[in-house]
Structure formats: C-alpha cells, structure tokens
Amino acid sequence: MRIGIVCYPTFGGSGVLATELGKALADEGHKVHFITYQQPVRLNVFNTNIFYHEVRVPTYPLFDYPPYEVALASTMVDVIMNYDLDLLHVHYAIPHASAAYMAKQIIKNKTGRNVPVITTLHGTDITLVGRDKTYEPVVTFSINESDAITAVSNNLKEETYKSFAITKEIEVINNFVDVSRFNKKPIDAFKKVIAPEGEKILVHASNFRKVKRVEDVVKVFAEVKKQLPAKLLMVGDGPERPAAEDLARALGVIDFISFVGKQEQMEEILAVGDIFLLPSEYESFGLAALEAMAAKVVVISTNAGGLSEINIQEETGFMANVGDVAAMSNFAITLLKNETQLQQMKEKAYEQALKFDIKNIIPKYEKLYSRWCRMTSCV
Ligand code: GMT
Asked: Is the CB of 328 under 6 A from ligand 1?
C-alpha cells in the first residue's frame, strides 16, 4: 500500500509512535510518505520505501500567524495526487484531522476519488487542548469526518466519548515498542561515568511540560537519596526544566542529577536504569514507560489515565495517586534496598512489554488499512 503519515516530528510520544509505525510498515514493503514540517526525530534510517515531504509555510508580512493548516492540507493534496496514495493516517487530531478533511474534499472535488482518512488520537489532543472551546467544534467535526478513528488506550477512548459528541466507533490500537531494540546490555563505560560507585540509577524522560509533574520526580529522588546512594538522569527538555533544576538545588540534590537534555539513543540510557519515574497528572498511555519496561526498568508512576493498562501494581512496577510523592518514594526505597525483588520486577516489566511488542501491533494497523482500502477499492 501507499500510505501517507502525518504527525508532529518532535520528541513527543505521538510523533515517535507515528514514525516507528511508518518505519515498520516500510519494512513490510509498504511505501510510506511522511508529511511534516520537519524530518521526524526518529526517522533516522535509510529505506527506499520511506519518503519525507516537508510542509513549507511561507511567511508574508500580513501573517502574524502563518496558516500552517492550509499549507499542510495543500501538501497532503500534492502528495496524494503525485504519489497516488491509498490512504492518509494522521496522528494527533489538532490540526492534522481537519487538514486531512480539507485535503480529502479537495481530492474528491478534483478527481471523484475518496481517499480514506484514519485519525489516531494520542492524548492532549483530547484531554487538554482539544477540549478548549477555541478548538472543540473543529476537533469534534474532523474526528467524526474521519473514516476510521483509533485511540491508543481504552482510557483515551472513554475520555473521547465523554468530552466530544463522537458518533462513530473508536477502535483501540495500543501503542507499541520494538522490544528487540530496547532490550540492550548496559554499556559499562557509560554506567561507570553516571554511577562510579555502583549507585542505583533512576531515570525520567519527557518533554518537561506541566502535565509531567517533573518537580515530583526531583522530590521522589531527594527522598531516595536520603536513604541510599543513587543518581537521577533527567532526559528531555521543556518549559518546566528550570523549575526542576531550581528545586534540585533547593533540596541539595543537584550534584546527583544529570539533566542530559533531548537524546535520541533512549535505549542506551534506559539500559543502565533501575527505576523509571513517571509521576504525570495524566497519560493516555505512557509510551515512555513502555519503552522503559522493554529495557527491563521498573516503572513507578501515577495511576492516571491509561497507565494502569500497561503498568501492573506491585508486579511490573508501582502506581500512586497523582502528587503522592511519599508513596512513590517509599516504594522506590524499599525496592532499591531489595536486589532480589528489583531483579524480579525488572523481568516482569520486560514480560509485560512483550505484550505490546511491535510485531503484535503493526498487523492491527495493516488490517485496518486493508479494510478501508477494500471499501474504497484502492487495492
Ligand atoms: O498528548 C500529548 O501530550 C502529546 C503526545 C505526544 O506527542 O507526546 O503524548 C501522548 O501520546 C503518547 C503516544 O501515544 C502517549 O504515550 C502519551 O501518554 C500521551 N501524553 C499524554 O496523554 C499527556
């Protein structure tokens, strides 16, 4: 099939997932066309089945806000026509689903062809941004106009029905991880630099937005540090990073934390980790936690959103209510002091990640594509 994938090209989970999906589809022999404003960060392979089309948004003195959605829809039309795409799969509703609707109408008008549009809902497009009344009518309309809608967890599906007047069936296709990529042996030299005295290593990775509650990560670490030798790796960057760094200074733990910024080789970082902290206010799924589990890292998270669909309480990790720093700290301390239990939970986390292995999930998307292609006679 010839598939168009539209996503955010950044380090965010929706862009990561969409890129990994495209790469896997290309490996299966499909022609995959990424349509984004920048080369997606995880699009770091050469594959003759992968094409990248940059959306250019020309500026003009009149435009305080250059019309990205119009440029995106026009690029979609161009790519669909010139590369004879069978379908468009857009990730994150805003503004991708409405731009896809526009592109679909233009193609129909020009050629009479009905190009299927599949929209995958990821998280804040539903639970935060999309609900805002500035966007809500367009989001509701464009989700309903999509030919197929998928959500990355049951929780997100329920949240979507609660917040929007959706008239169509939403299919849950969980996020996935390439377990073979994340199940890596730690690089000794790297581990020695981070934890020269054999300290336990805690990891957090996110885009440091408010929803991630990165200050709770620092608070949990400060409690752990009082009880045992430990280091914390803070991966990623974003608006809450300065506050997290200030708090680390105030709590006297800054020298034990490395704020390493945005990193592409997550598998190498996770390979040296013992515990992954994800104290988010909300996660539709928590792809970062799943990647940690695939690297045999125990996840201590909140029980918000869809996290309980991947993390199993006191089996693969631990979950607490949002903001319950004490519970998360206590669990981390107890676990890190008990090597046997730590190793057992690491294995359980890995076993759980296998259920979400890329090999189990890609066929679900292919089945969905085939269904829509048959309906519109594209194959
Ligand atoms: O919705 C967002 O905050 C952005 C999005 C992203 O691009 O990072 O994250 C969401 O999608 C991921 C991939 O499906 C999920 O693993 C994250 O849990 C989800 N984030 C939230 O729900 C906060």
From this structure: no
- CB of 15 sitting under 6 A from ligand 1: yes
pLDDT above 70 (res 378): no
Q: Is the CB of 356 under 6 A from ligand 1?
A: no
What is the topology classification, in CATH, of domain 179-354?
Rossmann fold (3.40.50)
Output the pTM of the full model. 0.94
- Residue 73 near residue 103, CB atoms below 8 Å: yes
Each residue's pLDDT tens digit, 56-92: 999 999 999 999 999 999 999 999 999 999 999 999 9
Beta bridge partners of residue 91, listed in sequence order: 120
- 377 membership: H or E segment, kind and range: none
Instruction: Return the residue matching tokens 């948004």.
Output: 57
CA 206 / ligand 1 centre spacing (Å):
10
Residue 291 host element (H or E):
helix 287-294
Task: Report the pLDDT value the prediction gives residue 188, as an integer from 0 to 100.
Answer: 85
What pLDDT, in 10s, does the model give residues 284-297?
999 999 999 999 99
When pLDDT is averaged across residues 199-210 and rounded to a whole number, the result is 97
Of 119-128, 215-224, 244-253, where does mean pLDDT reach its minimum?
119-128
Q: Is the CB of 236 under 6 A from ligand 1?
A: no
Spatial separation of the C-alpha atoms in residues 171 and 186, rounded to whole Å: 37
* Domain residue extents for the chain: 2-176+358-376, 179-354
Instruction: For the chain, state the CA radius of gyration.
Output: 21
Q: What is the phi/psi pair of residue 233, to 5°? A: -105, 120
Q: Do 2-176+358-376 and 179-354 agree at the fold level? A: yes
* Superfamily classification of domain 2-176+358-376: Glycogen Phosphorylase B; (3.40.50.2000)
Give SS3 for 184.
coil
Q: Give distance in angstroms: CA of 270 to centre of ligand 1.
A: 19
Q: What percentage of the chain reaches a pLDDT higher than 70?
A: 99
